[in-house]
Design goal:
Helices cover 66% and strands 8% of the residues. It has 341 residues and is an alpha+beta fold. The strands form 2 sheets. Strands 1-2-3-4 form a 4-stranded antiparallel sheet. The longest helix is centred in the C-terminal third of the chain and has 33 residues, at 244-276.
Length: 341
């Protein structure tokens, strides 16, 4: 069936413009926290952290007025992540170059839906149909054009790649379309770079989030989702309510406290004391503080993985976070006592 272009344009014009509502600070610290935690856990926490970032990004993305939601979890991604890493290692990075990025995009799209939308889990219509050789060709062309034009062609390449991604991406049966052009993007980037120069580089912190906002604004739905599949306001209000935001905040607080305590114990006890020749910190004290910190660290990591589940699990996550905060506080106190003693 051939789709009428005029009909598509009139349908899009009747809808709200797409927008991204995430802020610079949240984007910056989520990215920074993801890198730090992934590095400290030797990459094992990366799946949980990247899911956290994808949930945040989806919750702030509205395509023609319809909010997105990401329901993937770190436990689901962990096995795939380990397999992709193993295949990348034994193929000397070739699997990562040709396939890993595509596999991650397929998994991300599969778990992206419209908020409050009753989709059929047995017939998931959120799909990415791009092939590895197509992605390789797109990346090669974009990189080649960027290099030979001394980065001037980057703006065209960005739009070319986004059009390809949207052409092969479907969310709950709705096809995506990207209508931004390289000239438009170049004009925006020129203004942003000028503001960065005027503010002595301070505005550079906003460059990434501004680029995301511009890209989402030019991303539209070719066909809108079926209205009757959305939950009514009455049905949404009837769902079990939880203190999920409080649980998430407690989780982050506990995770941060125990992360600091864990690093402090390792660095001070295993490095500084040995270098300085201090003998008063006993082996038992060192072992206990590090074990308590690891216990709290793992507890809050588990809480991070389970933070997007149903109300009963979220209640357990809150309790686990409170326990983690207490254990972290004990670790810090024991750490300070060992230092001062």
């Amino acid at each position: 069936m051939k789709v009428d272009a005029k009909e598509i344009n009139s349908q899009i014009d009747a809808q709200e413009p797409s927008r991204f509502t995430g802020g610079m600070l949240a984007n910056y610290f989520i990215g920074l926290f993801t890198v730090i935690v992934s590095a400290i856990t030797l990459g094992l926490a990366f799946p949980a952290m990247i899911c956290w970032k994808l949930r945040w990004k989806a919750s702030h993305t509205y395509l023609n007025g319809r909010q997105l939601v990401f329901d993937g979890r770190g436990t689901q991604l962990l096995g795939k992540y380990i397999l992709w890493a193993f295949l990348s290692i034994i193929t000397f990075g070739l699997y990562y170059i040709f396939s890993a990025k595509l596999k991650m995009t397929e998994w991300e799209t599969k778990h992206t839906h419209f908020a409050n939308y009753n989709y059929d889990k047995n017939d998931n219509k959120s799909k990415f149909s791009g092939k590895w050789y197509q992605l390789f060709g797109v990346n090669f062309i974009c990189n080649f054009v960027t290099v030979i034009t001394f980065t001037i062609g980057y703006y065209w390449a960005h739009c070319y790649k986004e059009r390809w991604y949207c052409k092969h991406k479907t969310i709950d049966g709705c096809q995506l379309e990207f209508n931004g052009t390289g000239m438009q993007y170049f004009g925006k980037r020129a203004i942003w770079m000028l503001l960065s120069v005027i503010t002595c580089g301070i505005y550079t912190f906003w460059l990434q989030i501004k680029s995301v906002k511009w890209t989402v604004y030019h991303t539209n739905l070719l066909n809108m989702p079926i209205e009757y599949n959305f939950m009514s306001v009455e049905n949404i209000e009837a769902l079990p309510q939880t203190s999920k935001s409080n649980g998430h905040n407690l989780c982050l607080i506990g995770f941060f406290i125990n992360l600091v305590a864990f690093i402090g114990c390792l660095i001070f006890h295993l490095t500084l004391l040995e270098v300085l020749g201090v003998k008063h910190a006993s082996t038992i004290n060192i072992t206990l503080t590090i074990l308590i910190s690891i216990l709290a660290f793992v507890g809050n990591f588990i809480c991070q993985i389970g933070r997007n589940k149903i109300s009963s699990v979220d209640t357990k996550s809150v309790r686990l976070s409170v326990t983690g905060i207490v254990l972290g506080a004990i670790t810090l106190v024991a750490f300070l006592i060992s230092v001062m003693g």
